């Protein structure tokens, strides 16, 4: 049993039973049976079920908002008016993508043979998700895999399981075969039981880099396909010609959205030395306007951190930090697990505060001299997920962005995403893409059908291509 705690006030919200690790195999077996039906569904049939699911999610907005806000403490308006409509748009995109998952007709590649390429589902996908965006992550995991014709067993993070459980209920109500999307609950042991189950053909995890390694190790014996969306430590590169107020507003939004518990959060601001002082001041001003507060109050910009332990962890990073605290730097008193938005200037590049993923509303500022140094510092962490470049010079912004080892670079903004655009990292941030047609492709395999069309007596037509 896991007791869920509301991070905004520390009160118990609900008790959710954990799935015994020994029962995961039976869940996977049911998923295999559902897969055998679903793989025969036409793309149009799959799309219709996903579109009905999107409508049911839309109709369930109030309940989903209550569950997500109770478990994460994020502002209700942020979820209801932002993340939830986005997740619905994701589902509608995946429904459309199911119908355009085409292999190419490859033509006559060897004399006497016609080749056809078809995309087929992989089987049962075991998915593991984190607590920072519980509902969106469940949609990003389940949506493309189901669109491609797979069955999915998903394990949400132990602190935030209920919107994922609700998604599976709504999916069943949308007319999906029984057992096609199932949820197992619990911690790492249940996650490992899923990853190592021989009935699971592919594993997909969004979580920390360390968890990604553990999942990959668990998938080795079965040689399973692995999809890893892991941690991040996004740099924001501010050049001398950037509009500083605009930059400060965008970087601070990027650093504090979801209380910084975001793998793409702006965490390191590198600023051209000629405007360093001004930029740090602009960042401090913007940060001072961010209002942590009750998730149900309309004027709250950010909620608490996910737990008391996580708040202590964030505070530990800040206390040990190199550099000077320009703003914030302390927990906020009260029953919830709030932390002040924090800016640390003059941090040392090799220090922990610059190198490690903190997952809190903490921004570090470091000066640079010239483009080459900016790029070198930006690339100098184990991660490679997101980044932003702030400059009025579009040539420079493009030039610099091409040199960054990351999955996404925003120019003069930080954070926006779209259902059509692939999301995923390189280096310690993992591999594989969420959203977009690429995600649907990742949950499918290309098969080659080679059909002999030569007359039966033509025996000499085979030769290696
Ligand atoms: P976490 O790694 O602690 O847990 C993620 C999930 O993995 C949970 O469901 C957890 O129970 C499970 N898990 C943990 N250890 C496991 C193991 N050994 N085997 C199998 N499953 C295991 O991460 P978190 O604290 O829930 O989430 C925060 C992390 O997620 C951050 O590092 C963040 O950057 C990352 N994240 C990445 C993306 C992305 O798209 N790249 C998006 C959101 C979050």
UniProtKB/TrEMBL annotation:
Organism: Planotetraspora kaengkrachanensis
UniProt-listed InterPro entries: Ald_DH/histidinol_DH, Ald_DH_C, Ald_DH_CS_GLU, Ald_DH_N, Aldehyde_DH_dom
Molecular-function GO term, any one: oxidoreductase activity, acting on the aldehyde or oxo group of donors, NAD or NADP as acceptor
Keywords: Oxidoreductase
Active site: 229
Keyword Membrane in annotation: no
Annotated protein name in UniProt: Gamma-aminobutyraldehyde dehydrogenase
Family affiliation: Belongs to the aldehyde dehydrogenase family.
Entry-linked SUPFAM superfamilies: ALDH-like
Gene3D superfamilies noted in UniProt: Aldehyde Dehydrogenase, Chain A, domain 1 (3.40.605.10), Aldehyde Dehydrogenase, Chain A, domain 2 (3.40.309.10)
Domain Aldehyde dehydrogenase residues, every copy: 4-448
Pfam families assigned: Aldedh
Superkingdom as given in the UniProt entry: Bacteria
Protein's UniProt keywords contain Chaperone: no
Annotated PROSITE patterns: ALDEHYDE_DEHYDR_GLU
